Amino acid sequence: DTEILGNEADSDLAIVSGGGGLYAGDDSEILLDATEIANNTADRCGGVEAESGVVIEGSASAVTNNGADLEGGGLCARDGLLVSGVDVTDNEADGSGGGIVGQDLLL
Q1: Per-residue DSSP letters for 19-72?
Q2: Distance CA 79, CA 103 (A)
Q3: What is the model's pLDDT at position 13?
Q4: Which parts of the chain have pLDDT scores under 70?
Q5: Cβ of 30: how many Cβ atoms within 10 Å?
């Protein structure tokens, strides 16, 4: 089992931070097996920030209890995101997408 817990992506005055728990660059493939991404925070994308063309596949995994000041409490994607086998629950954002925010999502 893997846990990514209680992390914070801290912003600098000129940049909005993202990916409190995990950041995935363009065309990344993330395989989660019994993984919990929880209690992470960021300006946006509290749990996971995914760039273009990211695939997230999981088994018995969860993105839960993450928070964002702006949007995407659990997960957010710039363009094109495939998520399979991952529970996204109890995340919060002060703006849009408490659970998930993005474009061209396939869940």
Answers
A1: -SSEEE-TT-EEEEESEEEES-EESB-SSEEE-TTEEEEEEEEEEES-EESSS-
A2: 5
A3: 55
A4: 12-16
A5: 17
